[in-house]
Amino acid sequence: MNSFPMLYTSRLRLRELRPADAPAVFAIHSNSANMRWFGVDPMADLAQAHALIETFAQWRTQANPGTRWGIEHNGELVGSCGLFKWNRSWNSCSLSCELAPAARGQGLMSEALRAMLDWGFAHMQLHRIEALVHPKNAASHALLERLSFKIEGTLREAAFWNGGRHDLRVLGLLAREWLDKK
After folding, report:
1. Domains of the chain
2. Cα separation of 151 and 138, whole Å?
3. Residue 44: how many CB atoms within 10 A of its CB?
């Protein structure tokens, strides 16, 4: 992967996360209620936000690379979304995203994911994108289903965070389903 792919929508700029974003990333990732379905324990300090931003930057250099965009709305970072674990021989990858509570209910994540999915299918030549979602995460399920993702099954007790094991639902989107939606 070469230069970072900036994406633009009518209201958003999807851009590379940078060290100056650490306070906003920390605000999102340290909120226990916000992170209850995300798959990791809430952050305890700002150093963890800096480390996460560095991890996202390193994704682009891995053998199975990924890209994580910061979602900027009205000049403020309100969340992030990404495509990762790119299996080039299978033309597949995984999706992940999170949004600050104050930015919810405005259609921002839907707008961001549409731009990201367009880019992934076109530039990464993906055939399949999947997401792993906690069964009780109704908002993420509804969003992904509006984007034509289909529930494919459940990974029983596949995840561990907040001191407990969690099932994860697998949702998948094929390129032809995305193109049919357009």
Report:
1. 7-181 (3.40.630.30)
2. 13
3. 10
For the segment 20-40, what is each residue's pLDDT rounded down to a tens digit?
Answer: 999 999 999 998 888 878 878
| pLDDT tens, residue by residue, 92-106 | 999 999 999 999 999
Alpha helix stretches (DSSP H) within the chain: 22-29, 32-35, 46-59, 108-123, 138-146, 175-181
pTM: 0.94
Answer for the pair 96, 55: CB distance below 8 angstroms, yes or no.
Answer: no
Report strand pairing: 92-99 vs 76-87: antiparallel
> In angstroms, rounded to a whole number, what is the distance separating the alpha carbons of residues 55 and 19?
12
Instruction: Return all residues near 145 (Cβ < 8 A) that are at least 6 apart.
Output: 151, 171
The Cα 171–Cα 153 span in angstroms is 7
